Amino acid sequence: MGSSDTADARALSVAGLLPCAISLALFLWLSGFIPEIAAGETVRYATPWVPSLGVALSFVLDGLGLTFALLITGIGFLVMLYSAKYLAGHIHHTRFSVYLTAFMLSMLGLVLADNLILLFVFWELTTVTSFLLIGFSHNNPDSRRSALQAMLVTAGGGLSMLPGLLLIGSVAGTYELSEIRAMGGILRDSTYYLPILILILCGAFTKSAQVPFHFWLPNAMAAPTPVSAYLHSATMVKGGVYLLARMHPSLSGTDVWMWTLAIFGAVTAVFASVLSLRQTDLKLALAYTTLMALGTLVMFLSASNAYAITAMATFLVVHSFYKAALFLAVGCIDHQTGTRDARILGGLWRKMPITALAAGLAALSMAGVPPFLGFIAKEFLYKGALEAPTMLLLVGAAFAASAMMFAVAGIVAFKPFYGSGKAMDPDKPVDGEAPWFMFFGPLVLGVAGIAFGLAPHVIESISIAPTVGSLLGDLSQAKHLHLWAGVNTALILSLLTFATGFVIYALHLRIRAGLEKLAETTPDSDVLWDKLLASSEAGMTRFTNFIQNGVLKRYLTTVFGTLAIFLAISLILGRPNLAEVSFPNVELKHWSIFVLTIMGVALVLATRSRIVAIASLGVVGIGVALIFIMFGAPDVAITQLLVETLAVVLFALASLRLPGLPKRDEVPRRWGDLVFACFVGGMIMIVLLADTAGSFNLALTQYFETASYPDAYGRNIVNVILVDFRAVDTFGEISVVAIAALSAVALLRQRIRVRGSRS
Amino acid sequence: MKSIILIAASRVIVPLLLIFSVYMLWRGHNEPGGGFIGGLIGALGFVVYAISSGTEAVREALRVKPEYIAMAGLAMALLSGFMSLPFNEDFLTGQWLFIGASEGEKGFPLSSVLLFDIGVYAVVMGSVLAIVFALEEEVE
What we know:
Chain A is mostly helical and about 750 residues long.
């Protein structure tokens, strides 16, 4: 497959086009729901999955879900169209398409799931699929590292989210989000509110890369550009924002919610926009602006006023449009020129006019220039911030971030196309315009930014108002989007933003130099992560070497010692009445078995030959089997006998490989072992005696005795329990048997190979 | 270390053990026995054969790797579990068929439970043989 000639390799393939068809079909199908959702209705579909645990395959489509679903499938379609060309001829193109489609479907499941457990499943599916996508260039160690890092951070957050979701379920008594949203009061008054909030925020903040979990996102840029455009602008990283928005009706309104989200969001937004100024790689600069957008979204979710929520909903859509467009445009630049370095690129508009147009439109939306939708979003951000109780923080952070956004928009989309191209390598001619498959997506998204800006009521009725309705409970709560609201504080702030942004753009080379100097002296969380990982690995290695040091004796000591200690603890805590213990009436035949077993043990201890020891151990086993027979358990006795026989065979085979036992006088007397063995044996004996002292609960025995034949048509209760009543347990056991056998074979074979390679 | 006595004896013992193992499996539902015990006896039969004539001979007689036997057993047990799903019953609920049943006559019982037990038999036998072979072949 890899040896096809280049002309063929560049052609479009089924692998590239099928995902486009799937995503387009989904987009059109979902668009069909717009009228219903815009009217404030919701669509729900549910089928039981694990009813005993309250887990259902339930999906709900409401304003928030539909907005996300349309972004996921719509931008998904454009990105897949783009990658059909971008990756055409790549040896693993099919694999890429499968990953990307799987990611899209998991993301879609996440935003449509109504059941919390289902939501968690899709949440982790997006983590796994994004791991595969980030690590797509698996030959590159950086790429593998980034993939692992992204997965560890987001999956760790996801795991901490799970108990949070379970707590919500136990407080609310249901896992259905559509029911939980009406229970905000119960959740907020619950004693578990704080733990729930912390756990959920851990999940959301890691997924949406809030400081201090932000470092994985820029590293995830190791993925192919369409993946960055899709995962790290429009979809996956918004998963956390989605979760917070989903939980907004149930968890928001408290001081903790308000301040935590506001502070984390504000810090992320400002921190990320400062860092994005420092980047010279266009893609990395964009990655940091994504962090800034995520911070802004989280920050505005902290508030509950209608302006802030409308601003959040608008900014969510705007950002998805312009960020995906810019990423894809940068991909076009990279594809045609072979570089993404902001210091080199310039004057590209002559060669790539359409890409320049698309990027320009997107950048103007990002900069928040009228009449783009980005301008409306920014106006609303200011209005929402001014109304919030955390006004100073929100206005300050939004102002700083927006001003720097303006500057970055210039760096990313103005300079490469219209700046001086003097630094461009004249020996490497630009290929010209990118193929239409590739500039189509950015162009559509760029145009959408201005079209919706000129006609804001369209996007308002399709998406913004229904989203606000999902959060605040009522469509009519949404503020009307408009371009011109008269001269007010927000407009003045906007104008100030432009001015500041322009100054920053003009000075950005100097600022970058200063930031680089600063970066040398401040600790990098990426480095800290490496240290954390390394120390955790070292710790685990020490732990493993301690537990699994290869000395069989220590393993056995650990296992039996743990058992005996727990038995002792349960004896101390349980306080059984040992006075009631009466020794059973032991007859002569029982004594004979006892003597036989003891003699077997004595012989094992005394002998210096492995074969004798193994055979004597067999005697002990047979003694136990005899006890089973005497007390009426023939099945157990037969099994015991057979296992004993096989064990002797296995031991005998293994002992052929072992050296002989050392002579008696070479071994020091191990009194410690004697004490230890007596301790373990004694504990087990006492627990058994204490257990049998009371009367047995015979309910189960009686049930099986009466139900065995009528229900399961079997008279051998032991077997009926094994294969019918408790067949799931048996299935688990035989799986363990099979896996143990495979592992043993693999280990033994490996030893043969190691030895074979040495000789 | 081939022993003529062991080889001669194994010609009688091995078939007996194998037949006995199937018998134990078959009667297990009503009398002491069952897939686990049957599987152990079957494995013992082949182990005796392996000790007398070497593992190569047993591998030839088995025709498939013991690991595959174990996996096939696991698949059978899983399949028997799914048999109840078309009847809208829980996973692994026993499904019974009484062939030739009439008034007062139970008929010849066949069930998904038997398939499950055969699965257990195969898993136990295959797993034990896999370990024994690996140990024995390592020695050689």
